[in-house]
Amino acid sequence: MYQSTFAAASIVTVLLVLTVIGLSLLVLIAQWVALSKSGDGGWKVLIPIYGPISVARMGGGGAIACCIINMVGASIIGVIGNQLQNALFYYMRESEIITYLVLVILLAIACIVCTIIENVKIAHAFGRTGGFGFMMCLLPIVFWPILGFGANIYVGNGNNAPVSYTNTSFAVSNEIDPVVDFNSVNTATAAPVKVPTVKH
Hints:
The protein is mainly alpha-helical and about 200 residues long. It has helices at about 1-35, 50-55, 60-85, 95-125, 130-140, 140-150. It starts with a helix and ends in a 51-residue tail after the last helix.
């Protein structure tokens, strides 16, 4: 009985892991396509640290700043979490534990806010609403593929102009075609014009 229960639990665990990997790949591919739409190399999403910054770059400078805050905040939360785990085995004062917990909560809130801002800016860069960007945070497996595979055109965000169109210039000529002043034409040097005669 225990063997069958263990086998069933193992199968469920493997299926869950495969599902998570598949959904993560779907979001990664959607980000690749979206990054390619902005004129940047989609392969950059595969590079650690640089990949998330490249994705945030589509939303402009504010999104990049939010992305960096997220990465730094997540790293600090990981360090604090390790300290709290050590507190279970070593003596740590109650005040220190409370301080660590408050710091973790504040960093988590900051990371959540920065994630929302980053996704909203990216959504605006593709002509989408802030609500769409908010849903990209809640359901990335749904809304990132919509952004990447849908008919969304990268229009830039603020001063962040589309990379594809930065070298394209549409110059409008202000020059006026010269007008000939027939009064200033020297009739002495002008070639005579032959007028055809009509025979009756």
